Amino acid sequence: MVEVFAGRTLLNKDGDFVDSEEALRNKVVGIYFSAGWCPPCRDFTPILCDFYTDLVEESDPPAQFEIVFVSSDKSSEDMVEYYHDMHGDWLALPWTDDYKHELKQRYKITAVPKLVIVKENGDVITDKGRKQIRDRGLACFRSWLDAAEIFQNFKG
Fold first, then answer.
1. Does residue 30 contact residue 22 with C-beta atoms inside 8 Å?
2. What dotted CATH number matches 9-146?
3. How far is Cα 24 from Cα 67, in angstroms, rounded to an integer?
4. N- or C-end of the chain: fewer Cβ atoms within 10 A?
5. Residues sharing a CB contact under 8 Å with residue 139, sequence separation 6 or more, in sequence order
6. Are 34 and 71 in contact (CB under 8 A)?
């Protein structure tokens, strides 16, 4: 049960709406709080893209990992531009969805960028995803997966 985004509709890079429960089922989820106006975000996003590509797009089978971008951009247009120009092929919470405020409160987000790694039910595995990716690269995914308590098909 994907409780953290239950009942929410997410967006993919093509602008299509995606059912969150289907997209996030049996996966470790990285909630990426970020904004295009933020230089540290623009610095980390390409690193996250490489991490995601290696894990999800170039692994066989793909790693059980998905990212949901939660924007702190000033407008929907700014979010869409940043998402399309810099982000990987992951999902996003629509800018108009006020649930982003609840998420920021729940995960105590006071600054961006912040990558919170959660279990399917929304429990935090780590709120230091950005630091762990910078320090450990792909190796950190294995510890997240072990903590997530999901059925694993990941061999890496």
1. no
2. 3.40.30.10
3. 9
4. N
5. none
6. yes
